[in-house]
Design a protein that fits this description.
Helix content is 14%, strand content 35%. It has one domain (5-141). The strands form three sheets. It has a seven-stranded antiparallel sheet with strand order 1-3-4-5-6-9-10, covered by helices on one side. A two-stranded parallel sheet has the order 2-11. Strands 7-8 form a two-stranded antiparallel ribbon. By secondary structure, the chain is mainly β. Strand 5 (61-67) and strand 6 form a beta hairpin.
């Protein structure tokens, strides 16, 4: 699905709520992934919020929002492998992918360009900040998995 950069920003910041207010488990290391469904308050568009952890490196994690089940709008990666952008530039291990017209989510930016994600002391704090950035306005019922 091809989206314009303007449409991506609108979708990211569209007000959303959890489709199911049940507790959202932030996975413990090695549990890999938890997926929650989000629904836009105004028009009912559906999104997915993924949170995943690495099995080996305890500090490695990612959280992302998808639209239309498989279109990644935005993803934050912490302590992952460096990323090579389509223009050949390299971004360090903590970075943010944002869907870019013509490139999907293949383009990454240094995390320090997104001050709202800086200084998190736990994965739960990162997921809460990320959810707010992505327009989630309902209560965020996160519980961290056992480490």
């Amino acid at each position: 699905m091809a989206l314009s950069d303007t449409e991506v920003q609108r979708l990211i910041h569209l007000q959303k709520k959890f489709a199911d207010e049940a507790e959202v488990l932030v996975p413990a290391s090695g549990q890999y992934e938890h997926c929650s469904e989000l629904v836009a308050i105004k028009d009912g568009d559906r999104f997915l919020l993924d949170v995943s952890r690495a099995a080996i490196r305890l500090t490695r994690c990612k959280t992302q929002t998808r639209y239309a089940r498989n279109t990644i709008l935005i993803r934050v990666e912490i302590d992952g492998p460096p990323h090579d952008n389509p223009d050949g530039t390299e971004v360090g291990p903590s970075h943010v992918h944002v869907y870019r017209e013509g490139y999907d989510a293949k383009w990454a930016y240094p995390i320090d360009e997104f001050p709202e994600f800086m200084g998190c002391t736990s994965l739960i704090e990162l997921v809460r900040k990320f959810s707010r950035y992505c327009g989630v306005v309902s209560r965020i019922p996160y519980q961290e998995g056992v480490i």
